[in-house]
Design brief:
9-stranded mixed beta sheet; alpha/beta; 2 domains; 6-stranded parallel beta sheet
């Protein structure tokens, strides 16, 4: 079953969440979607990557919206046996000084280009484990600090061990955000020097060897996005599986999960911070290659973490996954090979304007039908649709468009517009949930002037409908808190221009009037809509050829560059082949 994947050295790609397909809710948002695109492009390019994540049997959550606009969370359970194959290997991780057994399911990503990428889904729901331990891999980002730390122990410690047990030869470990940073501790434990060989004042661990194996991609400058755990909790959960030398404890030889002994407490605090176990700091300390996910994000991260070199590899999105069927067929006909070499999309200007507009009309009609089915709101196919869809949290500023309701009504009287919204708030993000309720209140204020629809359950299928069916894509983060953002890249594959705040990837992707437009605040957003964007959309003098030319500029400039094929080629040459 695994022979084709273990025959050659490969890169182990660790991520707490990976979006594999719509029926498998092992993702919460952009981080997981990016991880899925990473592995899909690895399969396309036949790069030897193996994904490692948690099975998350209860998923993140299914979102419903109540009559008052309140988010309602429902469990998103799934059965891994429907989509993945169980593997024979089983390893143990010591948690609170007892063995917690871990096995894995195998899911294989199949590329349309013939390649395959394996993904291991770690699972503790085994009869050998206590009930409380069987639950560890159930809820993505669920529970309290103790639950989260247990998950990260299973991912970091258990992930490295299961790869060894299955026979993988790992040439590098790539941490997609800091959740998996404990893999560095596991490698240090493996590469510890025998106690008899260590003289006073010398290191116990071969940290340079560990650093040579580890790569780390940081994804957020938002403080809440970096996991921290109090050391009292760490001591309780890690117990003798990590601590020992400074406490004169002796590792228990032969116990599950004890390969080469514990890690000294002082070493852990040096690597991860003296005040708490900072998973980002730990990942930085054990990696010799660190990158941000956009040029500006790398600059911001370097200031956040002085002393570390932070490179920039700007994110990209998977070409086939994020192109609507009508655009896939169009590109296949006019630009053969585009899905393997998306840079060929620079040739899009040779496609007839009418064909570009027709492909968009099909995608827009599909979005309009979904809005009607889910919300009962009837949208006008001739009127411009503005879309805003992302995780609902304060720094994304989803209310910017609604800052001045009367101004928005006045713009709509001159140039009709419609608004489609989507996005989940984390169950513990009360402000995010209040934002969703306020967006519904704004929709009621605009009734009769501007049609506004909020689509619940923002999943992969809905995301594709949104990024392809919109006429204009909106993004309004508070700089510099948007590390990258990828929704506008997805829109670009469908010829949809962005009207966005200059942050994250848009600093690199915005060519004013060519790929979209930059906005700095609500006033500039309204000004651009009223004087530039909507007049261009509604122009009739040349049969809307101006808008078709804009769409082709978006495809030929941004889709041709901001794709995961280019991103993975850069990871391969700059991070993996070192």
């Amino acid at each position: 079953m695994l022979d084709e994947f273990v025959s050659l050295p490969c890169v182990a790609y660790f991520s707490m969440e990976i979006a594999l397909r719509n029926e498998i809710p092992t993702y919460a948002g952009g981080l997981g979607v990016l991880a899925g695109d990473t592995l899909r492009s690895a399969a396309d390019l036949r790069l030897p990557l193996v994904g490692v994540t948690l099975v998350s049997r209860a998923g993140y959550f299914r979102q419903e919206i109540g009559a008052d606009g309140q988010q309602i969370e429902r469990e998103a359970t799934w059965d891994p046996s429907r989509w993945a194959q169980p593997l024979d290997a089983k390893v143990a991780v010591r948690i609170e000084d007892r063995p917690v057994w871990v096995n894995a399911w195998l899911y294989v990503i199949e590329s349309r280009l013939g390649g395959r990428a394996p993904v291991l889904l770690l699972d503790t729901d085994l009869p050998e484990n206590r009930a409380e331990d069987r639950d560890i891999t159930h809820h993505l980002y669920g529970g309290d600090d103790a639950y989260r730390l247990k998950q990260e122990m299973v991912l970091g410690f258990g992930g490295v061990r299961i790869l060894r047990a299955l026979g993988f030869e790992i040439s590098a470990y790539h941490m997609n955000e800091g959740h998996s940073a404990l893999l560095g501790v596991e490698l240090m434990r493996r590469f510890a020097y025998p106690a008899d060989d260590v003289r006073p004042g010398e290191a116990l661990y071969d940290l340079p060897r560990v650093r040579d194996l580890c790569r780390f991609t940081t994804h957020t400058p938002v403080e809440a996005g970096h996991d921290r755990f109090p050391y009292e909790l760490v001591k309780r959960l890690f117990a003798s599986s990590v601590y020992g030398y400074n406490n004169h404890e002796v590792p228990r030889a032969g116990e599950p999960g004890m390969e080469h002994g514990p890690i000294e407490f002082g070493t852990l605090t040096e690597l991860a911070g003296a005040d708490s176990l900072n998973m980002t700091r730990l990942a930085l300390s054990v990696s010799d290659f660190v990158n941000g996910v956009a040029k500006r994000h790398a600059e911001v991260s370097a200031k956040m973490y002085p002393g570390y070199q932070v490179r920039a590899i700007t994110n990209g999105v998977h070409p086939i996954t994020w192109s609507a069927q009508s655009f896939r067929e169009l590109y296949d006909r006019w630009i053969p090979g585009w899905c393997h070499e998306p840079e060929l999309l620079a040739r899009v200007h040779g496609i007839a304007d009418a064909d570009i507009l027709a492909a968009h009309t099909k995608a827009k009609d599909a979005l309009i039908a979904k809005v009607q089915a889910r919300t009962g709101t009837a949208l006008d196919p001739q009127a411009a649709i503005l879309c805003f869809a992302r995780r609902m949290t304060a720094y994304k500023r989803p209310e910017m468009l609604f800052t001045d309701i009367e101004r928005l009504k006045a713009i709509a009287r001159q140039h009709p517009l419609q608004i489609v919204l989507a996005g989940k708030a984390h169950p513990h993000d009360e402000e995010g949930k209040r934002l969703i309720a306020r967006l519904h209140a704004h929709a009621r204020e605009l009734a009769g002037s501007v049609a506004v629809a909020y689509l619940p359950e923002h999943d992969l299928d809905l995301a594709l409908l949104l990024v392809s069916g919109a006429d204009v894509w909106l993004n309004t983060p508070l700089p510099p808190l948007e590390a990258s953002g990828t929704s506008g890249m997805k829109a670009a594959f469908n010829g949809v221009p962005s009207l966005s705040v200059l942050d994250g990837w848009w600093v690199e992707g915005c060519i004013e009037g060519v790929t979209g437009w930059a906005a700095s605040d609500a006033e500039s957003l309204y000004e651009k809509l009223e004087r530039i964007v909507l007049p261009l959309y509604y122009e009739t003098a040349d049969g809307r050829h101006g808008w078709a030319r804009l769409m082709k500029s978006v495809i030929g400039t941004n889709a041709a560059y901001f794709n995961s094929q280019r991103m993975m080629r850069r990871y391969a040459t700059e991070a993996y082949l070192r």
